[in-house]
Fold each of these.
Amino acid sequence: METSGHGFARVIVLIATAIGCGLAQEAAPEKHVKDIRAEQTQEMISASPLCQRVRTDGHGYMHKREVDPATLEKDLTALMQKSDEVVLASIFRTQTRALSPSGEEVIEYFDVKVLRTWKGSHKVGDLLTFAMPWGAVYCGIGPVPIRGAGNASAFTMTGGFDWETIRYAGPYVLFLRHSRGDETQLLPGLRLTGGDGMQGLFVVKYGYSRECTGVWPDSVAKCSSILEASPETVAVRYRRDPLKKMYEGMPVPSFLNEVQALADSLGYPSQTGTTK
């Protein structure tokens, strides 16, 4: 280990540089669906090594990822404590499928408007984007055909067929955290907190509601009123989620009250209000 003045100065410079890079990375703007689409055009996806292999092999590629049971949280308290963001989110504003940073998986990005926050840095009215390890991309050249794309597509299925594919309108209560370390090669940015990116999404309304888009004037307050008096029940889409047994079928107002009480007990400041 160097102990000279020059050696010490060099160490200080290296530390300062590392801290500066870390701060620059932390301060990087959040990417949304439009940014992902601009970065990953159909031409770029088709030219990727994964898609080149798909075309060379002449048949579609499917990767079935198993969910490690150890990554599934057993109660809502643990899920909230391990989350960086806990929000009531609007219906999916827009979404897109893309290749993961590793280039070997397909992931899906979702844009939502924040309608209420229980934990995290996002405010009511913010556009929030998260990703899930699931989806398919077309690997062919030219426009995506209406039929027959299966043999020229790459698929990722996390959890196999245990993920219910019924399309709900939302809104949703989302428990999200930032990917760390090697996780960023699969899901950059925000991901569902548990279950290898599959646990932490609770559907709190099934039918489309204009008020719960977070777009129209006073829509946030109107959506809150709708949900607080909703006769509907919570749905958990991942069948192997331990929390499905606890919350599937719970009245939506009761679930929202439980999330609020939990945030209060843990000292997390919540926020309701109007959109920006």
Amino acid sequence: MAFRVLMPAAVLLGLASGSAGCGGCDGGGFDAGISDVSPGQASVSLAWSLIDPSTGRSVTCDKLDANATVFVEIRSPTVVSSAVFACKSLQAVSDPLTPGTYRFMYELHLSATGDVIPATAGQSGVVVGAGQSVALAPITFPVDPTGGLALMLQAGSAGNCAITGASITSMSISLEHAGGAGDTGCEPVLIQLSGRGDAYNANDCSSPSAARCIESSETLTVPSLPSGPYQIHVRGKQGTLDCWGNDDVIRVPPQGKALRQTLNLARLNTPGCP
């Protein structure tokens, strides 16, 4: 017993009686109430969404966590089985079921944070008759689509700013959305710097301003910003020349968690840099 994810390239694992199955993993679109079951069997269909409870707005699975999955537990008086599938498919239909009364429980699993979020409600007492395809009530997962950053920058092994290290005299930083169509553009942020208790205002991606050199022992903190993928642009300057750089794509996790990571700056082939 399993669910078929009706979307190309979706991930599905169906577990029943200790064996794995994949139903109709070849995709093909939602069946719109048309069942593939025989007259003596039954099926159910399911749709879900993610909602930010603080605003009531919908959240996309890809923006929240590209590898998020939805877990479904299926119970009857005689059978317990489960299915796991990609959150981004947003809908699925079951493999053939034995007619009977079922209970369904749902969880959203976030790979980025390890969080397990139960749906706002499960469903019990669902009667599925022979030859029927029953649409379950749509389910909702409450999620916090914000997180934070706690980054460090590493250029020379002896430090970023010292003459014996990378000899960086100033730095510029900008942050751009990297989620594809509909999720692009600059994200203005105020970055707190731990070394001197000051901050860097990263509010211009086209022409970021240069500020003091940030040492490798400092932490760059952004307490809150929308979850999702970003491309960060860091330039370490020697005088007016960009001699060190980083253009990594990073992902801000959801559920108020912070990405903690060290970004390595590479030497740039800028004429005039030592």
Amino acid sequence: MPARLCPLPSALYAVLLGYKESPVAEERRHLGAVVRALCRQFLVGAGTDLRAAAGGAVDVVVPVPSTTRTGLSPLARVEGLGRAVTDALAGAAWAPSTLRRDRLGAAPPLAHMRPHARGFTVQDGSTVVKGCRVLLLDDLYVSGSRAQSAAASLRLAGARAVVIVPVGRVLRPDRVPAHRAFLVRQSRRACSTSVQAGQFSGA
């Protein structure tokens, strides 16, 4: 369930790269605040849809780890994100250390369009997620390899349900015909909705 569609190029894509890769700390903090606001806005507005997708209220929110960076995931390092998430999803726990990527070479490789169910390790055994409905929070969803691998690892650890929520779902209309056709349909739908709204308002 993507919070936003993210065609390339776009300002959203720049935000979702810059909050973790900008060499300027002040810019990372500023863009991190934008990411935090986008997450909170979506989670507050999509509560009903999230409960339907998960089969009930979300119990745990887990950010997807990086496959290249050590330590906490970039999302877990965004100041105040955990509080924003738990406020938006009353009753859900923020668990940023649940997943990790094995750095010793034992984990299978993850590549574009090549997810692996054992690509990540669930910390603390399965006690954090066993029997729980998990919201898996990601920043950018491109091919889905990383997020799908993380979701499979959580399911293997006993998670009852896993819903993947990327802040931005990357679309490449210049390279992928299906993406281009989808954006055209969305644009027509938006225009149609706008016209109908104008008719009802007397515009």
